[in-house]
Amino acid sequence: MTTEILETQSTVLVIDDDDYSLDLARLTLGKLGFTKVQTAHDGSVGLRLLDEMPEPPDFVICDIFMPERDGIEFVGELAKRRYPGGVILISGGDAQMLALARQIAVASGLNLRGAFTKPLQQEQLHQALSGEVSA
C-alpha cells in the first residue's frame, strides 16, 4: 500500500510518556513527509510547548494515559485555549477510556481527527492527518 506524502510545512506536537511510542510517531510522521515535529513526555510539558510556540501546531497527537497531566486533562486544556488544529488521541490501554476521551474532545468542540489504539499504524495516521476519516 502506497501512502502519499502530506503537506510537509505542517507542524505536529506529539505527547506520550513512552519513548518507544514517541520514536515511532516521529519515524512515521517523517515517512509521511512531516519535518516539523515536537514531542513531550506528558501533558504539562505539552502545554508548555504549546504556549511557547509562535503559532499553534497544525496537529496534536496525544496519549490518554500519562503521568502529571493525562490526555483527558490535556484535551480539556486544548478546549479552553480553543485550539484550532486537528487532534488525534491514542492509547495503549483501556478502549473505554479512549472512547470517553473521544467524546470529551468532540463535546468540547475540538477538531478530532481520530482516536486509535497503539501502536498507531502509518495508514491510520495518514488518513487522520489528511482528513480522509472522520472521528
Count of beta strands: 5
- Kindly, what is the distance between the CA atoms of the first and last residues, rounded to a whole number of angstroms? 22 Å
Percentage of residues in helical conformation:
40-55%
Unreliable segments of 5+ consecutive residues: none
Major β-sheet profile? 5 strands, parallel
Q: How many domain modules?
A: 1
- The radius of gyration over CA amounts to 13 Å
Structural class: alpha/beta
Strand content: 15-25%
Per the CATH scheme, the topology name is Rossmann fold
CATH homologous superfamily assignment: Response regulator
Query: According to CATH, what is the class?
Result: Alpha Beta
Strand and helix order: EHEHEHEHEH
Counting H and I runs of at least 4 residues, what is the number of helices? 5
Q: Could you say what the CATH architecture is?
A: 3-Layer(aba) Sandwich
Identify the overall geometry: globular
Strand order of the largest sheet: 2-1-3-4-5
Average predicted confidence as pLDDT = 89
Written account of the structure:
With 135 residues, the chain is α/β, with parallel strands linked by helices. It has one domain (11-130): Response regulator (Rossmann fold). Helix content is 41%, strand content 21%. It is built from five helices and five strands. Helix 2 packs parallel to helix 3. The radius of gyration is 13 Å and the shape is globular.
